[in-house]
Each structure stands twice: as structure tokens, then as C-alpha cells.
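yo, peptidylprolyl isomerase is done. seq:
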Amino acid sequence: SFHFFVEQVIAGLDRAATTMKRGEQAILTIAPDYGFGNTEVKRDLAIVPPFATLLYEVEILDFIKEKAPWEMTTDERIAAAGVKKEEGNMLFNNGKYQRAGKKYDKAGDYVGEDAPFRDDDQKLVKSLRVACWLNGAACSLKLNDFQGAIKLCSKVLDVEFYNVKALYRRAQAYMETADLHLAEIDIREALETDPKNREVKLIQKNLKQLQAESNKRDAKLYTNMFARTPKDFSVATK
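structure:
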């Protein structure tokens, strides 16, 4: 048996731990998808090869159940949101985008608009919300959930109309969903706010290429629709 904290270990152990009771013992067989995946990982007692199926003997010595947001004071909510956001950042940096996104969602729940935050806390609460929405949008882009990214960026832009990161990430999502006109609007507004932003300029170049390709396809489509051979014309006029 050993000590570990949920979300600081592989996904298989996380999932198993949430189903176990205090004092329970179990032998867990964890497939690579819920373990270390296709990468080699060095541990103190062993080197785990790629695509390894793992065997763990686990005992739950104790656990602390988190409070629900409505059970917390406003100070506790703010502190919990900060912790969840940092956990999300760690997961994101390790390529665990789906789990990171859930952390950002949870952090956002702690600082939702349902709680009566003090005026002195409003600036911090707003910054936490915006950070969680932006980071969640980054996760959505990594997971090809473009509508999810658009929704989260739009929430940011509802409260910070010229947030360059939100405009940039929403433009990326619009480009992936072929909403090129909307992407162009977001890119234009981002560059009005930050004219030298290299990332925005890069996707602007990509957008222009997509627009050129789209125009070529449209031109070819219209040509095929209205083109008539002499034979077609003679048949049509008889």
C-alpha cells in the first residue's frame, strides 16, 4: 500500500480511487490508455516501457472529501478555484487535455455568479473566471471540440470585449469550422488591440490561404453550374 493524491497519478488509479471505501484493498489491472500510454516512464523502482499494462496493489488508508461550492464561504471558493486552476495547468502541460478541461470547469464552478462575492473580491474572481474559460478553450481546441472553444471564448468576450487571447482562440475555432468571415472579424479586432501580436499575424496568413482556397472552390463550382457545351445549348433551344 502507498499514499497518493487523486489527479497526481495516472488516470486508472484516479478512477479506481473514487470507487473505493476507506480501508478497502484491491488489485488493479490498468490498460495503457489509463496508464502511461505509449511513452517510456522512469520510476524509482522500475522503468515502465511503452504500451505497458500495469498491476497495482492499492489500499485506501484515508481520504478527504471536498466540499461542494455551496458549502463553502466565499474565501474558500476563491482558494479552491485557484487550486483547481493550477491542477488544470499541470495536467495541460502534461498533455492531459480532457482532464485539464474538467479541472477548469470545476474551478469556474467555485467562482460562479451564484455566490455573493464581496466588492473587494470582484476583480480577483473575474480574473479567475476569465483564466478558466480561456484555459478551457485551449483544451477544447486540443481536443478538436471547436464549438466548445467558441462558447468559452464568447463568455470571455462578453466581459472583456477586446481580450486578444479569446479573439485568437475563437478565430482558430472558426477557421476549423469554416466560418472564415467570423474568423476574419476576430483577427481584425485582435490586431486592432495588439497590432504586433505574432501569433495572431500567423493565423491571419493561414486565414488568407483558406479564403483563397475557398474562393477557388466557389469559382470552380459556379463555372461547372453555368457552363454549357454547344451540344447542350443546341438541345436546350430546340
